[in-house]
Amino acid sequence: LYNSDQSRTLAQSNNPDNADETISLNLKAGIYYARVNAGSNVSSTYQLEASAVSLGPVPVDNAGETIEDARDLGSLNAAAASVNDFLGNFNGLSQDPSDYYRFELTESSTINFTLSELNDTAAFTLYNSDRSRAIAQSKGSGSEDKTLTTDLQAGTYYILVNGGGNGTTYQ
Length: 171
Hints:
Blueprint lengths: L70 E5 L9 E6 L3 E3 L1 E8 L3 E7 L6 E6 L6 E4 L8 E7 L2 E9 L4 E3 L1
Parallel strand pairs: 1-4
Antiparallel strand pairs: 2-3, 2-10, 4-9, 5-8, 6-7, 6-9
């Protein structure tokens, strides 16, 4: 099996002689080529079957990968700011190990964070305005919802969401 310009072999048969072969790969949308060839001085009939099961679209990364590129949630107030994103490994096609968010408080406030709708392990850490130290971390384990409630002074803060292992969506 070759990539779209046939410059790279993605998979090949490892079975000797006339043993059946199955190749199963997760591939991004695109054009691929299969080549069937016989060894020297050999002729044979064969049957080639090909099928595809959609994995869905590769998730778009809506958050920053580094603290410098953190997605800005703006100034937090009583109305909840909510985001949906993906974290981790998407079927070997995309890696997103961490997401950063930035928010501001215009006055001292009690903040409530919830990381929910997980289908794999994820957690979050709250950082101070100059990003030099972690203030708090989410509570909970595995794919259960993670929460954090804490009092903060006015200023700029950062949240790191990480984990995801085999991949998880979150809100």
